[in-house]
Amino acid sequence: MVHRIRTGFGDSTETYGGDDIMDWQFTPQGVLQGNASGPTIWSILSSVIFEILHDKGFGVEFCSTISKQLFLLVGFSYVDDCDLIQSGEDPLTVARSMQRVIQQWGDLMEVAGGALASSDTTYWYLVEFVWKRGKWVAADAPLEFDLIEKTEDNNFVSLNRLSCSTASEMLGIWMAPNGCKTKMIQEMRTSAVEWWAKIRKGRPSQEEAWQALHYTIAAKLKYPLAACIFTERECTSIMAPAIRAALPKSGISRTMTTSVRDAPISSGGLGVPNLHKLMGTLRTALLVNQCLQKKNDPPFATYVH
Questions:
Q1: Which of 140, 184, 185, 252 is most buried, by the most CB atoms less than 10 A from its CB?
Q2: Confidence of residue 223 (pLDDT cuts 50, 70, 90)
Q3: Is residue 161 located within the same domain as residue 231?
Q4: Helix (H) or strand (E) run with residue 77 in it
């Protein structure tokens, strides 16, 4: 198969693959960058790896609040992002178990032709839950321990350990084990401010500005809402820069009352995206979907994300 690169200026004249592949020092592997089947192929492959880890006894058991079913979770994985989870009653036992998981994961990835990424992009938490003021609170476990991984160069390196109050990114969502949402709010607010700066400098028509508000910045800010718990004031703060820029460009007064601005068009409003209401509807939809799950669903699952 001969591969070309397609750009806005046309197809490349230089190619790779085909008869030239015999001149390569190493035969190319994988599904190639940009292959539409890449995520599906990786899901199939990673599902087998997760199933092997499950058969070896790794994973965390959760009891679903609504269905009361037992859910066994080994980890989350999507393309090059992967989270592995272990739990237990003793911090040292949990840390040692996670070390075995990392080793097993790396060995299985090596068999499949892959390798763990650089330690610069890999981190871990050791969280201890303590009872404080009538509820469980996540805190850093008082244990000195190093997790080791083998890189693609066959070197062994220590992984970076983060505090449970430090947020990390997983598929565009910044989360901290102790529930701190400051970083997620900052990132969303930054996205709105950057969009505000671009729309102000541009010269969109009123229709283009209105469509851009709904289908660019609002869609981007909507993405993490189902996994977030923001107050109404926090949602207003995040969305404010985008609304301040979009309304004048759309020919609408920015001082219009929010009860009309955010109300549905069917009720006589403008239908401006309201993050707090969107968050509520998204979380409610997930709750209803969970309630409608059949009682004969399997008692455990390995979830590939």
A1: 184
A2: very high
A3: no
A4: strand 75-78
